[in-house]
Structures are given as structure tokens and as C-alpha cells.
């Protein structure tokens, strides 16, 4: 590629976004305001949510100690997914990563579906989490109406996302810090109970609790497999670090570092925490709907344990809602710039923030909270269940896009990524097969089957809207040649290093 072509590519990017020079992502217009400290904690926080603090209670009652193995295997799959995402991010770090990679390697239609599906995933998740956060407040004060708390939380997070991306990063940093501190504290207290024997649990706490009561698989391997959907739900949002690519300072360094911490994060915060909890409290004492952390604190004899966990779960819910506000605005803008969404969402503020997309998404979250408050029936549950299947759709797209990118890169058609996924394509194929198995398990489980009922409805909506938009604007769904852009960006990196 000639220097004139590189210059032309850069000029096109500046014309498209209206931003140029240092501090801005040249191809998107966002401000690179997220530093290494914030990216690391966003990555950690994305892997720790209410699925661990609350959902693990139901999974323990189903699988017993073998849940540890389920988290270990699922954690390995998540690492494969994240390394596949990392390879794509280092090839072309863009804020609309999932839909943009789908657009490039699968086709415009799949980019359209992925962008809107991921947007809906976070809107639904935001509705659920802000409503949950409001209910957690009632633990301390029943006189505060749930809708008041939901409104206050939504407004605060909305304005925090409009001030600057740095403030979003700071909020996520401290939300994640609370979760990390709680888990590490539980692990240290549990180790103290097991080694020194203090507290009410000292007489019965033993590592042998992991196999004493019915063995490691008390309900059989089949029941352990059925918990994989709960386990995978707990990991949803770990891919959020990819959405930060367009606003990360020095993404070539910060993003690989964050992705490479996935194994030890899962080892400590999931596997380590579960081993300690199940050693301190026999698995048969856990009940669905009761946080295993609360049960462990009560067994140890810490009366403040329930209040502590309630505060931690509150921060986890607010963290998820905060992430939803952040990602939805970016996804709507990506769709807008590619002609696959309303042009209205394409404009940024002077500070490089997608005000219109974030406002629209926040408004929908408020409507959802109101609907949930007025009609908390099965219809709402159906919508909520869609979050699981739509979240896994993003993972499927990441893996398929990485497989196609790797083939093109190996043939010399595209520049090689500086952060190649180890073991690919086999690791990516294994992860895809695992996700398919989880979806099959969801179909078998009558409680989770509703998620699969929602998927065809959404698919029909996507197909009909695609046909309408394509008829109005055929150019938006034409295949584009990304080779020139990728080579230009690679040459720009070389020039910067030189």
C-alpha cells in the first residue's frame, strides 16, 4: 500500500468522525480515557456478578461440590473466547467490536443482527439489574418505594456516563473493587476457619466436605451438566472489555494484559471462593435463592454477613447497569455509522460521548423498570430470559469471526495479529462446541427453555427489519473490503514505532 493510500484512509476517518490527532481514536472519534488500571478492573468486574453472589446457591443445590469442576471447565472456555477476541482486537481495535467483526468476516447482515442483539442484551440486563438494585435497598429501609430507588440509580448512572468516559471507568473500578474485596475477604476468613478452627464453623469445617456427603458428584454427572447454563450466565459481560477498545489508552498493551488475567481471575474468584465456601459449609446446607456467601457468613457466626453481601450484590447490580449504559450507546452509534441504525445515533458530543444512543437506552431501561413494577408477571420473565441466549450469541460471533480472520491472515490476505490465540483453531472450535452443548442443555431444562422460545421471535424481527432497511438503503448491506483499512492501520503502527 502506498503512502498516498494510507493518507487517504486517515483523511476518510477524520471526515467520518470529525476528530483528529492525539487523544482521539482516529477512526471513531472517541476519547481514549480508559487507563490500564480501569481496563483491568472492568475486565475483573465483568467476570464477577450476581451470578456468583446469588445464582451459585441454586447451582450448588443441583450439583454439589462438582460445581467447582463446572466452573473450571467453563472458565477455560471463557479464556478461549477472550483470547479469540483479543486476536481480533489487536488486528483492528474498534469500539463496536462484535458487530464490526461480524460485518467484516460473516457479512453485513450478521453485523446488523449482532449489533442490535448485543444492544438488546444490555438494555434487558440494565432493566433487570436496576430493578434488583432497588429491591436490595429495601433490605435496609422498606419505607423507600422500589421505583424511587430505581429512578435515582438510573439517573445517577446516566449522568455519570455523560460526563466523561473516565468517570465511567472510575465507577467500574470502585464497583469491581468492592466485589473483589468481598471475595478475597471471604476466602481469607474461610482459610482461617479451616486452619485455626475459630468461629462456630470451626468444628465442622473441613476440606473433606467436598466429597464426604454423597461424593464429589452427589446427584450424578448429568445434573452437573445441567448447571452449565447457570455457570455460563455468571460469566456474561466478560466480553465487555472488547467494547472499550475504541476508548482505551494504548490498547495494544492494556487489552492483552486484561485478557491474560482471565485464568487467575476465574481460579481465585470462582474456583477458589467455591472451594473455601464448600469446605466451610457442607453443600447440603445451601438453598436456591440464598446467596452462598450469606450462608457461609452465617455459619461462621458473623451476623453482619448478610448486610455485607447485600451491599456487595447491590454494587454488582449497579456495575452491570453502568456497563449497560456504556455499551448500548456505543453499539447504537456503530450501527448508525454503518447505515444499519438511525442516523440520529451517530453524533458524538464535544467530549466524544454518544449522548443520543445512551439517552435512548437509558429511557428504555426506565420504561422497563416501570413495566416490571406494574406487571411483574411471566411476560417480563420471558424477556429477562433472553439475556442468556443473546449474551452467548456475542461469544459465538467472536469465535466464528476469529476462525475466519485466522484463515485469511494465514493466507497472507490480512496482517497477522500481534496477540494470536494459542491453540487456535482447535480451542475456538472446542469453545463453539461447548456453547452449543450448553444451548442443548437449556432446551432440556424446562426452567431455562423459555430463553430458546424468545430467540426465534427476535430472529424474525431481525430478518423482517433487515429486509425493510435493505430495500431502503442497499449500500448499508453491501460487503465492504476491510483489507485496505487493516493494512493502513498496520502501517500506521509501524510508522509510530519507527
Describe the overall structure:
The protein is mainly α and 498 residues long. Helix 1 crosses helix 20, helix 7 packs across helix 19 and helix 15 crosses helix 16. It is a multi-pass membrane protein. It comes from Streptomyces hiroshimensis.
Query: From N to C, what is the helix and strand string?
Result: HHHHHHHHHHHHHHHHHHHH
- Secondary structure class reads mainly alpha
The total of helices stands at 20
Enumerate the spans where pLDDT stays under 50 for 5 or more consecutive residues: 1-27
> Share of helix among residues?
55-70%
- DSSP, total strands: 0
Shape: globular
Largest sheet: none
| Mean pLDDT across all amino acids | 80
C-alpha end-to-end distance: 17 Å
Rg is 23 Å
**DSSP strand content:** under 5%
Keywords: Amino-acid transport, Cell membrane, Membrane, Transmembrane, Transmembrane helix, Transport
Family: Belongs to the amino acid-polyamine-organocation (APC) superfamily. Amino acid transporter (AAT) (TC 2.A.3.1) family.
InterPro entries: AA-permease/SLC12A_dom, Amino_acid_permease_CS
Transmembrane segments: 41-60, 66-85, 105-127, 147-168, 180-199, 219-241, 262-284, 304-326, 353-373, 379-403, 424-444, 450-469
